[in-house]
Amino acid sequence: MPHDSPRLYTIPAGTPFLDALAGTLLADPTLGGRFGAGVALADITILLPTRRAVRALGDAFLRAGGGGALILPAIRPLGDVDEDELVLAPALGADAALSLPPAMPAL
């Protein structure tokens, strides 16, 4: 089978999604390469809906890896605002970026 061919995985109903995802990614032999399991995980980006889900997937990788050292993929939240950036924005002089543009003049 060519390396770039699509693969389809399913997760049975009732199975914890993040644990199944982490376990499958760690068990996938195509991700190990010659350096051992987990090295090519760094080439993957996983998009999740919230920062809470990002933290939970990190914990799932720890459980699936048996607590050993792992090189994790980039795990990013999609629809979550980073409050730390909003708090630091005025201190960095970026408060203008958060304000609304001026109203259009009347015709």
Please characterize this protein's 3D structure.
There is one protein chain. The mean pLDDT is 75. The chain has four helices and two strands, in the order H-E-H-E-H-H. Strands 1-2 form a two-stranded parallel sheet. The radius of gyration is 20 Å and the shape is elongated. It is mostly helical and 107 residues long. The longest helix has 14 residues, at 51-64. The protein has helices at residues 17-27, 51-64, 83-88, 95-98; strands spanning 45-48, 74-77.
Helices and strands in order, then pairings?
Layout lengths: L16 H11 L17 E4 L2 H14 L9 E4 L5 H6 L6 H4 L9
Helix pairs in contact: 1-2
Features of the shown structure:
107 residues; mainly alpha
Count of discrete alpha- or pi-helical segments spanning 4 or more residues? 4
- Structural class determined from secondary elements: mainly alpha
Uncertain parts: none
Following the backbone from N to C, one meets helices and strands in this order, namely HEHEHH
Question: Nearest-angstrom radius of gyration?
Answer: 20 Å
Helix amount: 25-40%
Strand content: 5-15%
Apparent shape:
elongated
| Main beta sheet | 2 strands, parallel
Question: What is the structure about, briefly put?
Answer:
The protein is mainly alpha-helical. The protein has four helices and two strands, in the order H-E-H-E-H-H. A two-stranded parallel sheet has the order 1-2.
